[in-house]
# Entry
Amino acid sequence: MKILITGATGKLGEAVIKALLKKLPANEIVALARDEAKAADLKEKGIEIRLGDYDNKESLDKAMDGIETVLLISGGNAQNGLEQHQNVIDAAKKAGVKCIAYTGRCLNDRNTLVNTLMKRHFDTEDYIKSSGLNYILFRNILYMDTMLYFLGEKVMESGIFLSAGNGKGSFALRSDMGEAIGNILAGNDLENRIYNFTNTETYSFYDVANVLSELSAKQVTYTPVEAETYKADAIKLNLPPFVIGMVVGFMEDLKNGQDNIVSADLENALGRKPASLKEGLKILYGF
# Structure
């Protein structure tokens, strides 16, 4: 059995490989990377490195040689992100890969998303299903790690001003999701399956503020604001328009209940409870 991990040098890819190495010999794991230098630590662990790029079809064809299962870790914010995903899926099908796994998003309703970039995940899932390949769909809830991005490093002094209203999300650590994905892939069960990876409860930004207050011994408050107010304040902070739009999209979807799903899938795949909000924020902010 050989498993190809795309995006292997990214944080999720590294977490998946770390979990795989606990269950499989290194020579059964293949890492796809754009930059061999960034994959040097993986090579030292005995993992084969294959150079490839989502935009380079020839490199993807070569990367699929002898591969049984492919984990397609979703690309970033590239304008042609869906096409990139399709390139990987096409290469896997062409090479006779038995199963393709994909890291998408756990959301309630694809048809009412404000953050339209998230629709790409569902379009990718549709393409995978239509390919005829066996599939495993890992639908990941919003990473708790994004708190650093949304709140900033000085949140204990500034407080929280976001347009999420009273919305709640079952945020979980990216490392927990990576570990769970690795555990499942190592089992080599290639039947069609869908996993909803969430925490065991939901949290609002009021909960986030309370936990940060407890951890920091400072009074951290959450003040819900309207989206337009957030945009105006973000512009004053010289945030790029694309970033502002992304944050507003995430917050509006949280407000609308897109992220309030709770499933036992992540806990079951880990064999333990995922890190709670308090445990996660303690790790992320270094308390």
